[in-house]
Amino acid sequence: MSTWSGIGQGFSVALDPTNLLYVFLGVLIGTVIGVLPGLGPTATIALLLPITYSVEPVTAVILLAGIYYGSMYGGTITSVLLRLPGEAASVVTTFDGYQMAKQGRAGPALGIAAVGSFIGGIVSVVGLVLLAPPLADLAVSFGPPEFVALTVLGILLVTYLGTGSALKSLSMAALGLLLSTAGLDPITGTARFTFGEVSLFNGLDFVAVAMGLFGVGEILHSLERTEKVQAVTAKIKGIWPTRTDFRDSAGAIGRGSLLGFVIGVLPGGGGVVSSLASYAMEKRRAKDPSRFGKGAIEGVAGPETANNASSTSAFIPLLTLGIPANVVLALIFGALLVQGITPGPQLIEQEPEIFWGVIASMFIGNLMLLALNIPMVGIFVQMLRVRAGILAAFALLVTMAGVFSVNNNVFDMWIVLGFGVIGWLMKKTGFEPGPLVLAFVLGPILERAFRQSMLLSGGSFDIFVTRPLSGGLFALMAVIIIVSAVTSRRRKAVFGRVDPADVDEPAPDADRQVTAEGSPGADSTTDTPPTSTPGER
What we know:
The protein has helices spanning 3-14, 17-35, 40-52, 57-82, 93-102, 106-139, 144-160, 166-180, 206-223, 243-265, 270-285, 298-313, 315-321, 327-338, 347-350, 352-373, 377-381, 388-407, 410-429, 433-457, 463-466, 468-495, and strands spanning 183-184, 191-192. It is mostly helical. It has one domain (7-226, 236-502). A two-stranded antiparallel ribbon has the order 1-2. Strand 1 and strand 2 form a beta hairpin. Helix 9 (206-223) packs antiparallel against helix 20 (433-457) and helix 18 (388-407) packs across helix 19.
């Protein structure tokens, strides 16, 4: 199938009334959860996983993808108005976006963020169309050793390019691999780590694990917070940027689109890394770097463009290689596996309606987001009035009902509660659940490919280094391990006090309010960027 015929088929799938409705629901839900601090796309997708099993696989992925890139838009709103990032990738937007709001330019900051995100998303979708098919053709020739190398590389990159301690991330990845072995051995049929429990013969249910770690764990963690954000009561005026704003931001948007696309393709890159890299690039290129942190519109346009571009291009390794680029994509990967669809090199040939339908839905979804975010900013801001306790009670009810509906198994509900407590403890102790879930999803693939490789080689490990591609990937891993230590030090030097490894929770801004012109009222805080940022959710 040619690219043009594939795109045509994709739009015929995406423009189906049902799928069109789910595109809209996805981007709308994504925007809302981006606005509400504490939820984030990871927890929301985990909570909604049971709902996706009642619809077609292509419809489910369209919904989940819309939530993912839609949340990148929504997180901008509270970052600009309250210096409180709605999700982790919007941390950098607080540096200059909030300063623009204090100067009465909240409207242009939100407007240029929406336009930049739209352009970044479209550029990334075009890159997805051009790059994914040839990459899938190349991946068809992969054998078990290559898939061992790819899965290990994916886990390694998510671990080393993540936002937390590398040692803690590695330990969580190891735990995820261990948990993935529970159940019956795929070759011998021997029970492993079941402890005599019949419900564990099929292994731990992915939905229950994900909903516990990200859903219940996030709910318990959010209920501990005592800070309150004062409701925003005024309308935001002058959303559409001026010609000068567009002229000043054009270069940042173009560079952010390309940078975000490249970083998104790399497993573990994510929105946080791309937005930080874009901000550093724009500050380095600026004639007057001192403007940054004081309301430079390029400091909003570049990072917002980059994080949305990266969220779209992250689908390339998922759809073509079957390797999730980050924890959100790991959840989408798991949702497809449960429905009997295996993302990978054969997806474009065996399930073209899913491959091309998802791509076409991204064109439509980005248009919808632009239409939603420009005129409806004031409505989204009012959602900050919703009390955290009400959201938590509703989310917990949906979680427990949803996980029971998947298998009609009470045991899964206990799994959710158990992993919910584990997720809460991980949040309190600085451990990230992302590497655990990613390793849990990739574990069965890694085990199967490794054992097949051992059968092919007669038990010799030479097969992993003598084959050019697998040997090259393992050599790349060695380079990454060496370089990651150097880059982490340099990143801290570039960003001063703000480093992604120090990410935790946003500082409370309880006494901040937006005036009629869209600028925050007087408060006692300083104009310096916040020294604490939310972790990847």
